Amino acid sequence: MPAKARRKPGTLSKAAALANAINSTLGTDIRLGNDALFQIVRVPTGSLVLDRITGGGFALGRHVEIYGDESACKSYVAYRAMALAQERGKLCALIDPEHSFDVRWFAHVGGRPDELLTFHPQNAEDGIAVMMMLAKHAQEHPELEIITVDSVASLIPTEEISKDPREEDRIAGQARMMSRALRRITSLNRSVLFLWTNQERVNIGVRFGNPRTTSGGRALRFYATTRIEMRKGGVEKTKRRVAARGKLVEREVSTARWIQCRVEKDKSTRPYREGSFLFDSGIGSIDVASEIVNLGLEDEIIERVGQTLVYEDVEGQAWKGTVNRFYKMLRENEELQDELISVIADNTVRQSTYGED
Fold first, then answer.
1. Which fold has domain 288-349?
2. Measured between alpha carbons, how far is 94 from 83 in angstroms, rounded to an integer?
3. Which residues pair with 59 in a beta bridge?
4. What is the Cα–Cα distance from 93 to 88, expressed in whole angstroms?
5. CATH superfamily of the domain spanning 38-229
6. Is 181 exposed, middle or buried (CB count within 10 Å of its CB: 0-12, 13-18, 19+)?
7. Radius of gyration for the chain, computed over Cα atoms and rounded to the nearest angstrom
8. Residue 226 burial by CB count (10 A; 0-12/13-18/19+): exposed, middle or buried?
9. How far apart are CA 80 and CA 153, in angstroms?
10. How many angstroms separate the CA atoms of 263 and 270, rounded?
11. For 141-238, where are the alpha helices, taking DSSP H only?
12. Among the four 30, 62, 241, 357, which has the fewest Cβ within 10 Å?
């Protein structure tokens, strides 16, 4: 093979020289592929498992669609991501056509409602106009980090609202609206993460294959860099005394549910990765201890011997106990929890790199 031609120090490459020539002539902003503008910056999702399967978190400047079953933590994940962004001193906005925003719930997941821009659009066009203005504002003010739309299914076009509900709707009105909206928003957006929650519908005419589809047509699934499917899994139960027929009886009641997550599409890291986390309804959040144990076992930093879990920390101290006792240690020992989270996060970054196991 011929040797690579070496460039003299201080001279531009052919690509850089061509880019400069076009930019000076047309006033454009062509850049080389290694420019910092194209480096993917990720933000935490609020779940160690979701961070793992998305390659380290949600990518800024992209569209991310979260869809799946009802009560599968779609809104929770979006709210938690915004709460973490606020902790970093960033601004977030919520477009809430469902009118489902709960101030107390957002505060519970760690957010600051007094710092959250919230808009209840009367129609989809108003919501899109606000999104476009926010994306344009973020070009000069990068402190705006996340815009959440909860949910796509509730974005109603003006033509649908203005019609008599007894008349037949025009076919695919919402799909056309979403296609127009995403073209415009994407052309303006540079650094804002758009989180779209979406509901599923059933294609009645489909006889073979998966009959389920998402609201709003196909535009979002094409524009989205990442699509995450979330499904309800098994239920964790605990025995408790509850009142029934005028007396107290002991029964098993649901206290938590496993949520199955799958990255159906991802253009920024490895797609088709799966994971699951436990949402504890008692504390109203993801059980971090269960995430640590499961990912720790996968990464082989936690060892299971019979019914005992063992972890050796950076100072060589061994932490071990039965499954329940180990979970209790994690919940009560913040330093131990933080150390394991840090090791798992490092492994997540390493595993998100192509060519590495």
1. Rec A Protein; domain 2 (3.30.250)
2. 12
3. 42
4. 15
5. P-loop containing nucleotide triphosphate hydrolases (3.40.50.300)
6. buried
7. 24
8. buried
9. 21
10. 9
11. 158-161, 173-188, 219-223
12. 357
Beta bridge partners of 201: 213
Check: pTM over 0.85? Answer yes or no. Answer: yes
DSSP codes, 49-117: HHHHHTTSSEETTSEEEEEESTTSSHHHHHHHHHHHHHHTT-EEEEE-TT----HHHHHHTT--GGGEE
For 8-24, the three-class secondary structure string (H helix, E strand, C coil) is CCCCCCHHHHHHHHHHH
Look at residues 155, 197, 178, 210 and name the one whose alpha carbon lies nearest to residue 67: 197
Kindly list the averaged pLDDT for each block of 10 residues, start to end, along the chain of length 357: 62 92 96 93 97 97 97 98 98 97 98 98 96 96 97 93 77 91 96 96 75 91 97 94 90 95 95 96 96 97 95 94 94 96 95 65
Looking at residue 195, its amino acid is L
From CA 279, how far away is CA 276, in angstroms rounded? 10
Gap between the terminal Cα atoms of the chain: 31
Residue 348 amino acid letter: T
Q: What is the dihedral of CA 330, 336, 338, 341, to 10 degrees?
A: -70
Q: How far is Cα 86 from Cα 115, in angstroms, rounded to an integer? A: 8
Q: What is the pLDDT at residue 307?
A: 92
Distance, CA of 184 to CA of 194 (rounded, Å): 13
Locate tokens 């959040």: which residue?
Answer: 285
